[in-house]
Design a protein that fits this description.
CATH class of the largest domain: Alpha Beta
Shape: globular
Number of strands: 12
Distance between the termini: 48 Å
Bound molecules: pyridoxal-5'-phosphate
CATH superfamily of the largest domain: Type I PLP-dependent aspartate aminotransferase-like (Major domain)
Order of helices and strands: HEHHEHEHEHEHEHEEHHHHEEHEEH
Radius of gyration: 22 Å
Largest sheet: 7 strands, mixed
Number of helices: 14
Length: 414
């Protein structure tokens, strides 16, 4: 973090740099953020001052130098690649930069060397990002798509894993799962899933967008085969970028179904060598970064490095403990007001998301809109009330949140 602040000193972003380092529960890095409580980081994180400083610095460089700024931006992305790799237990060469989580899922779903009849396991209740590409692959390659329920993963993971094991015994090629479920915040037992998949010759694909930055992830250590993640939630970047990490044992088998002019060996020689060497038959790189198909979202990746910087500084484990303290403070009072908590009983299955079912007869959409008008930002995915605080959220925001709930509840009863 200190490093990035030092890098941005003396650039056009300098005026925006936060005066001091990040502090848990302190929102001074987000001076423009409206309202009393922003509990919506599982949806979209607002850009911090550091993110804005990084964006300002890069856009000013492009404004001043045009194509001359490209090399510095490419260097920044290599730095970021290393940080992202470290965050998920990978090496920089395992990581490709993509526009969103979906792009990473598609690259694998369309790129695996499928055999007709291969069986793929998805979970009923997953965010569509991690289902629709597998459906497309199933239609294109004659795969069988199977759905398992998510019941039990938060409370009795052992039993839930047994159901997956039963499917594995029947023969699966791949299991696709989110590290954290977007509706109820259940953190899935990835290490156990990876071990069981591998014991049966199957592979594990992980959508990490609701986990990365807060929960431990270890691609190489746990044997996750593929991991895709977007940047605008817990990593606190902006929309329009993300990354795909591929286990080194798997990258060689992937077909270049999602590849473009920047995916090939030595893609820039015809532009910079001064010689007429352009060819269309160059081999696609056998590396995760082959998913970088064309001109990248340079600004978005600058924002991502700046979003990530305070997470590295504060440490994901400390942030998770801070967020859990907020969940502790919010959960009981909301249950006392008639909501049913979906928070996993197993501590290791908890995440940044606290979800609750609304009491019968409550118009949840109306409640969420009224809370928004009161300056409390929360979500309502698939009929759940979802609160997702992050490092700048503070315990002092709980009382005004509950007061807003008390004002809104009578008005939101259907
Ligand atoms: C679990 C999960 N996966 C993926 C996404 C988004 O995917 P993408 O980055 O492709 O927009 C979301 C939310 O937007 C999500 O909650």
């Amino acid at each position: 973090m200190v490093d990035l602040r030092a890098r941005l000193a003396g650039t056009a972003g300098q005026a925006l740099l936060p005066a001091a380092g990040p502090v848990l529960g302190d929102r001074s890095w987000f001076p423009e953020l409206r309202g009393v409580a922003y509990f919506n980081h599982a949806a979209v994180s607002p850009p911090s001052l550091l993110v804005q400083a990084a964006l300002r610095a890069m856009i000013a460089d492009y404004a001043a130098r045009g194509v001359g700024a490209v090399a510095a931006a490419a260097e920044q992305r290599e730095r970021l690649r290393g940080q992202l790799a470290a965050l998920v237990g990978a090496q920089p060469g395992d990581v490709g930069l993509v526009p969103n989580t979906t792009h990473g899922v598609l690259a694998i779903a369309l790129g695996l060397p499928w055999r007709a009849g291969d069986r793929v396991l998805c979970f009923d209740g997953e965010f569509p990002t991690n289902v629709l590409p597998w459906r497309q692959a199933a239609e294109a390659h004659g795969l069988e798509l199977i759905f398992e329920g998510l019941d039990g993963f938060g409370d009795a993971p052992g039993q839930a894993l047994e159901r997956v094991e039963a499917q594995l015994r029947r023969g699966l090629r791949l299991v696709a799962v989110s590290a954290v479920q977007f509706r109820d915040g259940t953190a899935m037992p990835l290490q156990e899933l990876a071990a069981r998949c591998h014991a049966h010759g199957a592979e594990l694909f992980v959508d990490a967008i609701q986990a990365a930055g807060l929960l431990p992830l270890d691609l190489r250590g746990w044997g996750i085969d593929y991991l895709s993640c977007g940047s605008h939630k817990w990593l606190m970047g902006t929309e329009g970028c993300g990354f795909l990490a591929v286990h080194p044992d798997r990258v060689g088998a992937l077909r270049p179904a999602v590849a473009g002019w920047l995916s090939v060996e030595d893609p820039l020689d015809f532009l910079f060598s001064g010689r007429p060497v352009m060819r269309y038959d160059k081999p696609v790189r056998q590396a995760a970064d082959r998913v970088e198909v064309g001109a990248p979202n340079a600004l978005g990746f600058a924002a991502l490095e700046a979003g990530l910087a305070p997470l590295i500084d504060l440490g994901p484990a400390r942030i998770l403990a801070h967020v859990q303290a907020l969940h502790d403070a919010l959960e009981g009072p909301l249950v006392a007001r008639g909501f049913r908590s979906l928070r996993p009983a197993a501590r290791e299955a908890r995440s940044g998301i606290l979800s609750l079912l609304p009491p019968p007869g409550l118009d949840l959409a109306r409640l969420v809109a009224l809370l928004g008008e009161s300056g409390v930002s929360v979500s309502q995915p698939d009929g759940r009330l979802r609160l997702s605080p992050h490092w700048p959220s503070g315990l002092h925001q709980v009382a005004p949140t509950l007061a807003a709930v008390d004002r809104a509840l009578p008005l939101a009863r259907a």
